Every structure is written in C-alpha cells, then in structure tokens.
Amino acid sequence: MDPLEALVAQIQGLSSTPGDIARLHIILKQADDSLRAESTRLSPVLGQLAPSEHSLGFLYVLDAFTSGQISKQQAETSVPIITGFINACNAEQIRLAPEKCINLCYPIVLVCKRLKDQVMMLEAPIRGAGPLLTAARKLQLSTEHLTPLHSDFLMLCVLAKCYKTGLSILEDDIFEVDQPRDLFLYCYYGGMICIGLKRFQKALDLLHNVVTAPMSTLNAIAVEAYKKYILVSLIHHGQWQLSTSLPKYASSVAQRSLKNFCQPYIELASSYGTEKIAELEAYVQTNTEKFENDNNLGLVKQVVLSMYKRNIQRLTQTYLTLSLQDIANTVQLNSPKEAEMHVLQMIQDGEIYATINQRDGMVRFLEDPEQYKTCEMIENIDSSIQRIMALSRKLSAMDEQISCDQLYLSKVGRERQRYDFDDFDVPTKFNI
Amino acid sequence: MDADDETFAPITDEVGANGGDEQRSRRPIISGDHLDIEAYASLYSGRTKIMRLLFIADHSSDEKVGNPSMNLEALRMAYDEIKKGENTQLMREVAQKINGRLGPSYELDSAWCDAVDHRAEQKKEKLDNELNAYRTNLIKESIRMGYNDFGDFYYAHGQLGDAFKSYVRTRDYCTTSKHIVHMCMSVILVSIEMGQFTHVTSYVNKAEQAPDALDSITIAKLRCAAGLANLEAKKYKLAARKFLETNPELGSHYSEVIAPQDVATYGGLCALATFDRTELKSKVIDNLNFRNFLELVPEVRELINDFYSSHYASCLEYLGNLKANLLLDIHLHDHVETLYDQIRHKALIQYTLPFVSVDLSMMANAFKTTVAELQKELEALITDNQIQARIDSHNKILYARHADQRNATFQRVLETGREFDRDVRSMLLRSNLVKHDYNVRQFRKL
C-alpha cells in the first residue's frame, strides 16, 4: 500500500483516545521525513482529514506541506487552509511536542510562522491576526504562559494597526516564558501597541521589562526598546535621568552599553530637562533624519507637545487664575489663542481641571474634584487589594518552590561553611 | 473709647507701612558711607591686615561702589604695613599693584627686599643649627620650641605651607595640654590664612578636647575660628551658632584673624538667614553676650530687630546700605548674595504666613518693589514649596492653600499599590527568565 495512504488510515484510526494519540505521535515523528519528501502530493490528503478530530495528523501533514518554498498564488490557497485548521483544531493534540530538541519548536509554531510569512507576502497582515490569536490562546498552558506565537501575533497587529485586538492579549500578566527572545519581542511590540493606544503607563512597564531583562549580550531589540523607553518616559513622567534610568537589577551588559547606542535620545532628554521649548524644537529639527530612520519621529513630536502640557500643569500649582496672555508668555506659545486651544485640549483629556472665561480671557484652575468617596472608588481599591494579595501569595509560593528546588539546594550545599555554628557533624556537601 | 481708637488706627497703618515713613525716631543710623579704611584696618593686626587691605584694593577697583582713592589708600596702607614685617613676596606684589601711582616713596624698594632676604637666610641657618642641636640632645621641650620658631619664621616670611608643616611637627613634642592648645592655635591661624578651612575645623575640635588648659579668651577664639570655617563651608546655621556662642571677652585679642565687629556681622547675618523665629529670639535678640557685640555694629542690631518685628522695608534698606561694605570683606565676599537672598526669601515667607489672603499691592508696598516683580518672586517660592499658596493673577491676591491630607493619602496609597503590583510582576517574570536560563545551562551540562 502506498505509505502515504497507510499513514492517512492510521491517522484516521488512531485519533480517538489519548493512548492511541500517543502511538500516533510516535508514528508521525518517524514518518516526518517521508512526508516532507512528498510535499507536492499532500493537498488531497489534507482534504481527507478532518481538522477537529485528526488535529495531530493534520498538523504534521500541514507542516510538511508548507515546508517548501511557496509562491504568492500558493499562499493564497494555503492561508485559508491554515486559518481553518487553527480555528477548528483540538488544543491538547497540538501541544504534543517533539522531545528531541530543547528549543521546544512545536510544529504548530512552525506552521504559524509560515502563516505569518505568507500573510506578509500577500501584504494583508490583518488576515493573520485573528488566526494567530486563536492559536496562541490554544497553545497556552495557562493565561500566564508566553508562547512564541504571542510575539508574532503582536507584530501582525502592529503592522495591521488593529491595536485593540492586540490589547486583549496584553491584559494578561505573563509569568512563564519558554524563550527569552519571545519575551523581548512580545514586550517590544506590546509597548508599541500601547503607545498607539496612548496607554503610556502600560507601555512603560512593557518596555521596562525588555530593558531590564537578564541578558548576557546586548541585542537589537533591547536597544530599540530603550530608545522608545526614553521617549515614553519623557511623555508620561516629564523627566528622564540617565543616571537613574536603569535600576540595579538590570543586567550589567545593559547598564554599560545601552546608552552608547542611543545618544541622540539621551541628548533629547537632557534638552527636555532644560525646559526651554525653543531649544528642544531646534534639537528635533537638526536631528529629524536620525529619528525618522528609527521610525520614532511621531513619538518625538509627541514629546515636544508634552512639554507644553507639563509647563501648563506646573502653572496650576502656583496660580488660581491666570490670563491666557500670561499663559502664552510663560509657556512660550505664540498667542493667547494657541494657549486657549492647549488648555481646552488638556481639560478634555482630563489632564487638568479648569474653566476658561472667554470674556476676560482668564483661566481659573480648580482642584481635582475626586473626593475618594464614591462606590466606584471603593470597588477600585478593593479589587486592587485582592489583586495584590494574590500576587503576594504567588510570590511566597514561588519562594517555597525555589527553596525546594534540587539545583538550588545543591548549589547552596556546596557553598555552606565547613562547620556550622551549632553542630559539628554537618556534611560538607549536599549530595543528592 | 478715644484711647482705644487711637491705638487701633496706628497699628493698621504700621502693618501696611512697615517702618517706611518719616516720623519714626530711631532712624538716623544708616551708614551708606564708604568704608573708612583707616578705622577698618586698625581693627586688625598682622598678616590678615595686609590681606584685607589688598582685598579691598583689588575689589574696590571693579566694584560699583569703589573709587580710585579707596584703592590707592588701601594699597598705601598695605605697603606701610608690609614694610614693618619681613614678607618680601607681598612687598613685590604690592609694589607692582601701586605701579608708581603713589609717588617715589612707594616704589619697590629692592635694597630693603635684599636686606630682608639676606637676614632671612641667616636666621634660617641659625634656626636650623639650633634645631639639629636640640634634636641630637633629644630634649622634647627645646625641639618643640625649635619647631615653633621655625613656624613663626616661615609665617612671617609668607611661606605658609612650610609654617603649617613646622607647627604640625611640634605635635609630637607637646607634653602638656597648654602646648597642644598653643599648637592648635598656631595651626588654625596658618590654615585660615591659607584658606584651608577643613584643617581649621579639625584642629578646633582637637583643641576643645583639652578643657583644662582653655581660658575663656581661647575658647572664644576657637569659637570664632570654627564659625569662620563653617561660613566658608556654607554651613550658615552652624556658623551662626558658633559666632553666637562667642563670649564678649574676646575683645580685640584675636585681631590677627577677626574683629568683634565681624563676629557681630557674620553671626547676625547668618542667624537671620537660617534661624527660625523662636531661635532668632532666644539666641540672638535675648542673648546678653551677643548684645555686646551687636552694640559695635548698630546697623546689624537694628536690622535684626526690624526683621523680628516685621518692618521689612527698613530691614531690607539697612541690608542694602551694608551690602557695599560687606562685599569688601575678605570672608563674607562670596556669601553676601546667598545670605541676602535667603534673608529676603525668609522675609517674604514670614510676611505671608499669618494670612489667609494677601493683597499683592500692599505687599509690594511693604517690600518696596513692584507687583510684577513680587509676583515673580512669589512664584519661585511657591514652586519651591516654601509658601503654601496660590496666586489669583486677575485680582492680584495671594490665597493660602492647605493641602488636603485625606486626598493626598488616598492618592499615595493607590500609587504605592500600583507600583508594588508592577514591581512584583516584573520581578516574578525576571526570576522566571533567570530560572529558565539556568535550567537550560544545567540541561546542557548534563
């Protein structure tokens, strides 16, 4: 019998119980090479298999089918097949991983990566976003688990500019990571999505994670993330200091070398610190090309805008009422009209509380009306408390887990003193 | 009834006027005159007199207040003083500065210089021989005297570094605490002349540890020296405290360093710039000892009293009049601006403290400035968080503003919670990464 047809029959037969599936898995791994050899004949095979029941088999066949070079027309046909499969497949079956390599390259990940490439080739990234989201959710062991698919998904979201879908996956906290590289990309793209949605605090958190992640050598992702980190710090906090920018737990490589690659941004930050808008704008003008090459020009323009806002906010601390003319003069704007527009914009965004009296040309600054007495506020505080208690529990659990860990104990055992304080007969090594 | 009316009306006037009108009786103590150099110089002796005169000469040429006659006068007096001593280096300097402007009797007298240098050589040899003799004999007291003489010799000739070293060497040969105190005083003198005030502080501490050998004059001298050191280190509060603790027996005993008028001025100004109201009252105004010093400089006394009784305009006027002369003082020169700013800021803050709302035009009147200027100054102070208030720029009123503790606490709590959340999450993530990396490495090793 044609080995291919035999394989198909086996797939169809052995896809029902977990024991059968395990056997099928072994068979498929052995048959992997022969499948790849026959990639041209595989499309009718795909038609014979049902994605939802025969997920594992379908997956291996699909993997072999898409492994070769694919042209644009072929991509047109294969994208819907892959999409359909992802939507219909069975989550447990696709998680079975080949044990031969440490890098845990699930076949599903390879398939999805190819989907991404094809979709990019077709120049329609949005077609890949939805399926990849489903795949990522299916591949995850829990919502705290990061898969390689996350970063690809976010990249497609950024390219397709559909930020809201990306945001949904960013809401989950990530604690388990398989591959550090995935984390870097995930946080970097996540940061970009948050910047797009103007959620600067979350963007800062994500970029901070990239920049302070343990790394033995500097990578380009970290450098780019650092540049954006500087800019978002300026927009959100209004200040950025080189000396305090990287906390002590950042890797030594990062602390030493990151700033060498981001010189224009550091100078921008120091120019921002002088609080002279004319200087800042002049600096931006001279260095427009550099910022543009890094695709950061839009962000830099937002930085300049944020300086006006910060100056106006400072005024609210010292004045109760101020004329629009004075505001324009202090903040170095060109006319009271511009000042009025800025103040209006800030009131609408909720960044300051004020009323504009157009007849006198005066602005009256008000106090923050939040009294912290409403039900919503109490619920907010309550949920924060719950959340933090859960985090604390998690932290203690992790601490316990590590102290029982074999590797940790063996290392600690080796480093212990020869003779302990109390007793004399302590073994010098923990041999487990 | 009438008596009450009479007392009420003048008080409100006084608050507004702040001591600016003509009828007040105790006014004519202003001295806007130029410094009387002879009187000033007579307060000092020794090297400091020369240094001070030179300082005046240098600074009176470029200061707005200066006039060429003061410059020449100072140089002339310096020349005369140097001639009485043995410092040829300074002689050359002064002669160069005079540049022949004072006539032929004030030119570089090379004959005198050579004679002095020659004498110095001889004396040095003699001292050297004596010291070696003493050292071979190992008589502690003589060695100590020998080094002391050396120190004095170097000091007289302007070689301050060597003088310092010589004095410090006597330390090993001091037997009684009196010797130690003597050594400390000499070192302090040289250090002040050199401008190395860290040594001054350490040696003052050393001297104060020998209480039995200290008479009150020495204690007063030590306090002054400590005060000067603190002043140079910009620790104005400590300096003020030291100067205020000086007892009036000092008199003119420390004229090689400081005059009692200086003690009053430095102490008064530093206290005014840094003390709060209670301290000012207890330590300065009610301080009987310090009162003796203040009598010597009535302007400073008046100015402190005015500040305390909130007559800011006259206080600031006295300050303005004193400024020109203070800028010619060798120790206070660098600190005048800072101290003046601090005093002015304190005045502004103290003015606004008792009120819920303040009319800016009245305040501007009290401080003899314009409303616009005043607004700028107040803005700076508010931004610095020294005044808790906000300005109503439309009606030109300053409103006191009290932070809402409850809201502030809520905000802080929420913010802390968010930060904790963020930090713990990233920490768990990072530890996971490290663990993974470690596992991978272990895995590879196995």
Explain what the structure shows.
The complex is a heterodimer of chains A (432) and B (446). With 432 residues, chain A is mainly alpha-helical. Chain A folds into three domains: 1-138; 179-309; 319-389, Orthogonal Bundle (Arc Repressor Mutant, subunit A). Chain A has 22 helices and five strands. Chain A has a three-stranded antiparallel β-sheet. The radius of gyration of chain A is 28 Å and the shape is elongated. In chain A, 33% of the residues are buried. Chain B has 446 residues and is mostly helical. Chain B has a three-stranded antiparallel β-sheet with strand order 1-3-2. In chain B, a hairpin with a 4-residue loop joins strand 2 and strand 3. In chain B, helix 19 packs across helix 20 (371-383). The radius of gyration of chain B is 30 Å and the shape is extended. The termini of chain B are far apart. Chain A binds chain B through residues 102, 173-178, 180, 183, 205, 208-209, 212-214, 249, 314, 317-323, 326, 360, 362, 365, 367-368, 370-372, 380-381, 384-385, 387-388, 391-392, 394-395, 398, 402, 407, and chain B through 379, 382-383, 390-395, 399, 404, 406-407, 410, 413-414, 417-418, 420-422, 424-440, 442-444. Strand 3 of chain A pairs parallel with strand 2 (389-392) of chain B. Chain B: InterPro entries: CSN1_C (IPR048624), PCI_dom (IPR000717), Rpn7/CSN1 (IPR019585), Rpn7_N (IPR045135), WH_DNA-bd_sf (IPR036390). Chain B: Residues 235-405 form the PCI domain.
How do you describe this structure in short?
Chain A has 22 helices and 5 strands. With 432 residues, chain A is mainly alpha-helical.
List the helices and strands and how they pair.
The complex is a heterodimer of chains A (432) and B (446).
Chain A lengths: L2 H11 L4 H20 L4 H7 L6 H12 L5 H17 L2 H4 L12 H15 L3 H15 L5 E2 L1 H13 L2 H8 L5 E2 L2 H17 L3 H13 L7 H18 L14 H10 L1 H11 L3 H10 L1 H6 L3 H22 E5 H7 L5 H14 L4 E4 L4 E4 L9 H29 L2 H10 L17
Parallel strand pairs in A: 1-2
Antiparallel strand pairs in A: 3-5, 4-5
Helix pairs in contact in A: 1-2, 2-4, 3-4, 4-7, 5-7, 5-8, 7-8, 7-9, 8-9, 9-10, 9-11, 10-11, 11-12, 11-13, 12-13, 13-15, 13-18, 16-18, 19-20
Chain B lengths: L1 H16 L19 H6 L4 H16 L5 H17 L3 H11 L11 H28 L2 H17 L3 H10 L7 H18 L2 H12 L7 H17 L3 H10 L14 H15 L2 H9 L2 H9 L1 H11 L3 H15 L9 H17 L4 E3 H7 L4 H13 L5 E4 L4 E4 L4 H41 L1
Antiparallel strand pairs in B: 1-3, 2-3
